[in-house]
Amino acid sequence: MMCEECQMKPATVHITKIINNEKTQMHLCEECAKQKHISFSTGLGAFGFDDAGFSVGKLLSSFFEPAGQSPMSLTDKLQCSRCGLTFQGFSKTGRFGCSQCYNTFKGQMNPLLRRIHGKTYHVGKVPKRTGGQLRIKHEINRLKGELQEAINAEEYERAAVIRDKIKQLGKNKNTK
Amino acid sequence: MGVENLMDPSRIKWISSPGPDSDIVISSRVRFARNISDVPFPHLLSEQEAKNIVSDVYSTLKNNTVFSRDIELYNMNELSGEQKTLLSEMHLISLDLADSKNGAVIVNQDETVSIMINEEDHLRIQLMLPGLQLDEALKQIDKIDDLLEERLDFAFDEKIGYLTACPTNVGTGMRASVMMHLPVLTMMDQIGQIFSTITQVGLVVRGIYGEGSQAKGNLYQISNQITLGKSEEDIIQNVLGVARQILMSERKIRQNLSGEARIRLEDKILRSYGILTNAKMVSSQEALAYISDVRLGVDMGVIKGLKPSALNGLFLMTGPAYIQQMAKNAMTPMERDLYRADFIRQKMEK
Description:
Distance between the termini of chain B: 30 Å
Shape of chain A: elongated
Order of helices and strands of chain B: HEHEHHEEEHEEEHHEEHHHHHH
Strand content of chain A: 5-15%
Distance between the termini of chain A: 72 Å
Low-confidence stretches of chain B: none
Number of strands of chain B: 10
CATH topology of the largest domain in chain B: Creatine Kinase, Chain A, domain 2
Helix content of chain B: 40-55%
Shape of chain B: globular
Mean pLDDT of chain A: 74
Radius of gyration of chain A: 26 Å
Strand order of the largest sheet of chain B: 2-3-4-5-1-8-10-9
CATH architecture of the largest domain in chain B: 2-Layer Sandwich
Helix content of chain A: 40-55%
Strand content of chain B: 15-25%
Structural class of chain B: alpha+beta
Oligomer: heterodimer
Largest sheet of chain A: 2 strands, antiparallel
Largest sheet of chain B: 8 strands, antiparallel
Number of helices of chain B: 13
């Protein structure tokens, strides 16, 4: 296969991009690839599309920037005491180094989570063994929602049962 | 034990026993991402630390009476490239795990449970059932998660839930997905429209081999994108609801097809059946396309005497790695296509 750009040399760089399910392929020789700024970071085998300016890391770190503010200046200095990950390190890979990182980058976490998930609070499962008190708290919150639904639907008998459950859980929580 | 043991289709639950709505839904999968607290995530682990996690997880399950006799452990560094490809074709591991030199996977007897260790997170627990039964899958995976948590300290934060290497999985750490066979919606060009609606309710669609893969054999995977701020049950209900709607419209179009459109479809189905029962060589791409047609033919009553579950099995068993492993000796692509055609013919005659 010849290079698509110059049609002179054999294509040695093959790139497949899938953006929004649209697949595009490029077959280039090394020189044309260089001209298009498609670089290979040697040693890692990974490559970045400088032309498209897109990577998971960049995408995630852009989530960190509150709209309208200049890109992170203070956050650059943050470093996790447990695993040594810096903010820059995170924005390159899009991955944290350890569970402690969530604490280290706490100040930046909310905008990031909001942009990914639309929410910043967990409402699901709580570990059984280590999450005792919290489990009860979550269960009470869940039941309160159910109670409201029952009241809205004018199912007062069901509402009474749920109310008693909430009371009982509240007691358990205080005695534990 | 070798990976060959895992290949027996009668052992694989999602192939051998049909589930609810399994005319259209091949399988339901739920996975939990979990990490051990205060230990660096897998990409920063030393070899020894990584090994410790594998043995901690394995011994936790071994010490449990429900699981003890039932599980097999496979270390990635002890498998060949082909064996790893096979496991990923079988949806037991991801391609990322195959690349992880400290990675391992634990599989149970009916292959409904696979626990990947040292993938992106320390643990990726997966539960896979036939047909549309995400709620049942959640129940079962919940038990395994509890059982592991009895002895392992999972990284968990009061506010943001289970902590994961990538913030896109934080919270529940849960991905719920269904694999659907949608040939008629695809043929009628309605699939694009449906999928663009799906993304608006926070779900994603992929091909059968996960992220970035194309839909082959009219098989699609629909799963949740958001993992934080919703309970596991709510996420499951969301995916279930959407899957039900899609399967209803696939069924409805199948039933309402009449006149010329129906004749054309039946002709296509029977031609594909003709190829699979007669061809000398079949590539894996062709196999997926024709098996899809034949499976539709069985569901629509155009082809009789074949079991849908046998065809589900063929989707898997015609993959390059599966064929290669069955044949045992190394083959050229042409030899593989000959072997595959032979194998499919035998299965069709049964």
